[in-house]
Amino acid sequence: MPTAPSTVYERRDGRLAARSDQLAVEEPLEIRLLTPGEHAPDGRPVASTLSITMRTPGHDFELVAGFLLSEGVVASPGELRRIAYCLDRDLVPEQRYNVVTAELAGAPRRTVLERHVVTSSACGVCGSASIESVRLAGHPELGSGPVVGVDLLASLPELLSAGQRGFAATGGLHGAALVAPDATVLALREDVGRHNAVDKVVGWALLEDRVPLADVMLIVSGRISFEIVQKALQAGIPIVAAVSAATSLAVRLATETGMTLVGFVRGDRCTVYAGRERIVFSPQHVSKPSS
Questions:
Q1: If you classify domain 140-287 with CATH, what class do you get?
Q2: Mean pLDDT of 188-192
Q3: Rounded to an integer, what distance in angstroms lies between the CA atom of residue 30 and that of residue 149?
């Protein structure tokens, strides 16, 4: 995980004392999309800028894949022909690994602009429009999913923090992890942005052809926002947990789609916002319902 050295000053014994510190790296990532048939007059393929996000460098291709899945642009790895850094000569050297081009095998299922237009609707309809936008994009059916015990839920934050080496070094990174019902951590990623961390683990699953993640839980640091639930929904994840609270729109989307949403997972405490049927109070973890 990239870090940057820095000299900082801390208050000690009534004075400021200097010490060395490690900072979380934050750099822009431009995501470009290349679709069949998009060419310049001279015949060269032309990629259009889809999004620019601030992220922590590392697992960039997973971030892009997860972003495309969560935004409904693609639904399977076969729809992605290639993801690569853009090494155009007109880019200054220090920016060449801050631009990634995703080449699609066919037309995109949806453009990100469609969702952004809907979610910027006037106050009073924002929540309804946002949820309707997710419906229009389509998402996997969540199904029954696993049934998990509160003991397993209580262990998720510790499983997440144990793998957050970047946070341990800097204190400035969010984390997200995909966890199987037997408490196996399938993928764990960190980033300065919660959404990026989720995109990275979801992108890992997409590139590994493991989507939809019908029997997997997502644990995130921080709060659960609408976007976190929406990203989990696009990946088919039935259970989302976090160490902090959920927002009202996140709970509404989870309730309407049958997702289990759990917040304030700290020690023996948790708050189940939606999907109570997947949570049991028996020892340890799992009994999968018959499909």
A1: alpha beta
A2: 96
A3: 41
DSSP 236: T
Positive or negative, the CA dihedral 31, 106, 235, 288 is negative
Measured CA to CA, the distance from residue 271 to residue 126 in angstroms comes to: 26
Query: Side chain identity at 101, as an amino acid letter?
Result: T
Can you tell me the distance from the alpha carbon of 228 to that of 216, in angstroms, rounded to the nearest whole number?
A: 15
- What are residue 268's DSSP bridge partners? none
CA distance linking residue 7 with residue 180, whole number of Å: 40
Q: How many CB atoms lie within 10 A of CB 92?
A: 7
Distance CA 110, CA 119 (A): 15
Of 86, 123, 126, 270, catalytic: 123
Question: What span, in angstroms and rounded, lies between the C-alpha atoms of 248 and 55?
Answer: 26
Task: Assign 89 a pLDDT band (cuts: 50, 70, 90).
Answer: low
Peptide bond into 212 cis (omega under 30): yes
Q: Are 179 and 219 in contact (CB under 8 A)?
A: yes
Mean pLDDT of the chain: 86
Summarised one tens digit per residue, pLDDT across range 220-238 is 998 999 999 999 999 999 9
* 123 catalytically annotated: yes
Cα gap 111→131, rounded to integer Å: 16
Q: Please say whether the beta carbons of 27 and 57 come within 8 A.
A: yes
Nearest to 207 by CA among 58, 86, 59: 59
CA distance 121 to 153: 36
Query: Three-class SS of residue 242?
Result: strand
Task: Please state the domain extents for the chain.
Answer: 140-287
User: How many C-beta atoms surround the C-beta of residue 247 within 10 A?
Assistant: 17
